[in-house]
Structures are given as C-alpha cells and as structure tokens.
Amino acid sequence: MSSMSSTPTAARTPVVVSLPSAAMWLVGTAVLAVLAYYFIGVDQGMTSVFGNNTVIHEFVHDARHFLGFPCH
Amino acid sequence: MPHPRSFIAFGVLAGAIGGLLAFVFAWIFAEPLIQQAIDYESGRHEAQEALDRAAGVSTGDHEHEIFSRAVQGNLGAGVGIVLFGVAMGALVAVVYVVLLGRVGQLGPRSLALLVAGGGFLGVFLVPFLKYPANPPAIGHEETITVRGTLYLVMVATSIVLLIVAVAVGRRLQARLGTWNASLAGGAVFVVLIGIVMAVLPSAGDLAANVAIYGHHATETPLPLEDAEGTIVFPGFPADVLAGFRLYSLLAQVILWGAIGLVFGVLADRLLRRSAERSPSSVHA
C-alpha cells in the first residue's frame, strides 16, 4: 500500500494581521460602515440627525424599501 | 504582511460590485413592483378622499415630493443600494481580518464566503424572517419609530447571537469535532433567536394598530370599506407583496454572494503574493 505521502497543503492559515496594530483601521472602518447603514436605512425615518426634512429619506426611498428597512 | 487597509480596500471594491449587481437586479425586477405599490397607494388615497367627502369630513393636504419618482427609482435606488453594498463589504473585510488565522483550517476563500454568509444571515435574512421587507403603501406613519426600533433590535440580536453561536462552536470543537460542534453552535443560534422572535411583537400587534384595525400579522392594507361595510377598494395585492419580498431576498443573496466571492479571490491573491515575497512564512 502506497503511503499517503502528499499531505494536504491547506495548512492552517497563519495569523496575518496583528489586531492591536490594526485596531485603528478596523474600528474606523466599522464605525464608518455603521454610519452608512444608519443614513441609508434609518435617518429621517424613525430618527433624524439632519433636521426636520426628508431629503435623505426620499432620495434613497426605493433602496430603503428594497433593502428591508421599515419605511413611512 | 499585508496591511489591513489592503483588505478594507478590497472589501469596499467587492461591496461596490455586489451593490451594483443587486441594483441592476432591483432595477429590472423590483422597480415595476414598487411602481405598482405606489399606484395602489394613490388609488386607495383617492378612494379614501371620496369616502371622506361623502361623509363630510375635510381631507388632509397632499404631501409633495422632493425627488421625482424617476430620481428615486434610478439614481436614488442605485446610490442607496451601492452604498449599502460598500458598507457591508467594508464590514466583511473588518471581520475577515479579525478572524483570519484564528478560526482553524479554513482557506482564504472559504473564510470569505463564510463571513459574507454570516453577514447575510445576521444583517438581513434572520431579521427578514420576523420583519420582512415591504413595498411602499405598507407601513403606518404613526408606528415608524416602534417598527424601526424593533427591526434594529432584530438585526443587533441576530448579529450578537451569531457571534455567540460561533464562540460556542469553537468551545466545543475539541470535544465534539468540527462537524458536531458546528451543528451544536447552529442549534444554539436557532433556539435563542427563536425565543427572541417569539417575544418581539409583530408589526400588526402594535398597540396603535390593534386599536384601529384589530390583530393582524402585518400592516398590509386591508380592503377599504364604506360606511355600510361594502368594499370600495381592494386590499393590497398579494402577488405584488410576495414578488417584492422574494426579489428583496434575492437581491441580498446577490449582494452578499458577490461580496463573498469577489473579496475571497482578492484576499486570496493578496495573501499568496505576500507569502511569496517573504518565503520564510508558512506557505498557505
């Protein structure tokens, strides 16, 4: 019986990025992404940061419905 | 060692591509349904006004639109969906960088698909099961704050419970093996999210709705009746609602699927190139 000489090359992926040094990039990106989520989906619907008008709400109106956010 | 900003840039790119594909899909399939829903809404509004006039009630003034339907359905929908894709792609990249090399024997592309799949589940699909997407004409003005809060609670809970499920699975891996530990983690998620879904109220069961309409699962418009109880305008067309929800779901599958696939390929190439440049590191 031939031995299984070729061990799978898919070894454990090494830890690539050390988190402490990347923290600023990761946290900053996550915050911006959550802000985008908020303004596309929520602002000027249930709450409003940009005052008492509905410019954002109306502009992304169809996207908001289609992306599953509650509307009206 | 690749810089985290390379991964984030690839996440943004993958998200933009996913968002663009989802928008093209929405533009072809969903926009006609949105128009039908708006037509229903205005038809119903006119019928209501006629009823009010007949009853001698003064009707409220029309709200004017800031952006035309053409802007909302083309530019606005495109910008909204693509930006959503970009934001979700960036989030996938962040989670990917955190998990890379810390979740066992997963190749770079498999991990990308799993992270995007988790995003699809937590950000969209699980909340959708409780509070599905609705076209215009569905949703009462007076409940927007409650509905919005409930939806965000569902999104946040889904994401947190997914993380809990992964942590449970990782804990049990040594004892049960990868397969059974994954099943156990999945079971924990299903049970906990099931309890949350059972506890949270349906939109139709909100106090403001029960007071006027009685108990219903959703805020989908019922038939409009005159004083004698004769139906003068039909309820919201079921096929428009079903189609809209199906297409909304498919658009998210396209969006997250594209993010997982595109980001996986880009991240894989990035990791390979950096491994070639520093031959001392483990060949992935």
Architecture overview:
The complex is a heterodimer of chains A (72) and B (284). The N and C termini of chain A lie far apart (71 Å). Chain A has a domain at 19-67. Chain A has 72 residues and is mainly α. The radius of gyration of chain A is 23 Å and the shape is elongated. Helix content of chain A is 47%, strand content 0%. Chain B has 2 domains: 1-56 and 72-138 and 238-276, no CATH class; 140-219, no CATH class. Chain B contains 6 helices and 2 strands. A two-stranded antiparallel sheet of chain B has the order 1-2. In chain B, a hairpin with a 5-residue loop joins strand 1 and strand 2 (231-233). In chain B, helix 1 (4-55) packs antiparallel against helix 6 and helix 3 crosses helix 4 (144-199). The mean pLDDT of chain B is 92. The interface between A and B is large, with 44 and 78 residues.
| Most strands sheet of chain A | none
Percent of residues in helices of chain B comes to over 70%
Strand content of chain B: under 5%
Our count of helices of chain B gives: 6
Q: Assign an overall shape of chain B.
A: elongated
N/C terminus separation of chain B:
13 Å
Order of helices and strands of chain A: HHH
Oligomeric description of these chains: heterodimer
Tell me the number of helical segments of chain A per DSSP (H or I, 4 or more residues long): 3
Largest interface: A-B, 44 and 78 residues
Number of strands of chain B: 2
Distance between the termini of chain A: 71 Å
Shape of chain A: elongated
Q: Which blocks of ≥5 consecutive residues of chain A have pLDDT under 50? A: 1-11
β content of chain A, as a range?
under 5%
Order of helices and strands of chain B: HHHHHEEH
Spatial strand sequence of the major β-sheet of chain B:
1-2
Proportion in helices of chain A: 40-55%
